[in-house]
Amino acid sequence: MGKQSNYVSRQPDENGIIAWSDEDNAVWHDLVERQLKHIPGKACDEYMHGLDLLGLPLDRVPQLHEVNEVLQATTGWQVAQVPALIPFDEFFRLLANKQFPVATFIRTREEFDYLQEPDIFHEIFGHCPLLTNPAFAHFTHQYGKLGLNATPKERVYLARLYWFTVEFGLLKTADGLRIYGGGILSSPGETEYAINSDKPERKPLVPLDALRTPYRIDIMQPIYYTIGSTEELFEIADLDIMALVREAMELGLFEPKFPPKPKTDAA
Predict the structure, then answer these.
(1) Alpha carbons 102 and 124: distance in angstroms, whole number
(2) Is 29 labelled a binding residue?
(3) Which contacts (CB < 8 Å, 24+ apart) does range 237-244 have?
(4) What does pTM read for this prediction?
(5) What would the pLDDT profile of 75-97 be if each residue is shown by its tens digit?
């Protein structure tokens, strides 16, 4: 989160309204319309229910107050406008205060299919529907409180648990695999890959294992961790996660299931 962004977040006016351009609104429309074709039968029921509750506009980028009204009424959460990239301290502080950070920019056409930075489409379409779910909201809140008080090294381990749940988590339901991770739900390619491909491993989530599993943000995931229902997030949130972090630090990381990231001239 300390890297420089190529994007500049749009600032709200005195009434909290952001003036999105016609192109911004068109990109939002095209991203949402495309993903709505991919998620039926793949996204979990809790996500689809949250999407219905939010009633996101198709023709324009939503205003944050529209999202906040629904989140406040369901779980007491809010979204908070932030610059493109924020420090870990601020990220955890917001989550600990039931505020989900949303960078107020949207990707360009050139990065339509994949963007390393979380934009407003990823944050609102990918994550906010599940923030209407009590178990998911509780897990995210507890995670923020833990991260706020963790050391920098502990935060690196905590980040892996977030990655394999909030960003790339799967449910193993009676109807088959379903997605609850926002990193998958905002990506058509990963939506298909996570559910239908025989390439990745899918293993039941053991929190200690997730804390020890390396990941890369710029590839399709070689491993996904599954839980049986979103209710399990209540149980995970109430474990002594920091004791598990310390155990993971002692045991060390598993071998990566991916090749090292190629070095660039700029690296």
Answers:
(1) 7
(2) no
(3) 237/138, 237/139, 237/141, 237/142, 237/143, 238/142, 239/207, 241/142, 241/146, 241/158, 241/161, 241/207, 242/146, 242/150, 242/154, 244/207, 244/208, 244/211
(4) 0.94
(5) 999 999 998 789 999 999 999 99
Picking from 216, 203, 204, 207, the residue whose alpha carbon sits closest to that of residue 247 is 207
Q: Is residue 127 a known part of a binding site?
A: yes
Q: Which of 1.20.1260.10, 1.10.800.10, 3.40.50.720, 3.65.10.10 is the CATH number of 22-251?
A: 1.10.800.10
Task: Record the tokens describing residue 248, joined without a space.
Answer: 């993971």
Q: Per the annotation, does 122 bind a ligand?
A: yes
Tokens representing 131 are: 């923030």
The pLDDT tens digits for 8-67 are 999 999 999 999 999 999 999 999 999 999 999 999 999 999 999 999 999 999 999 999
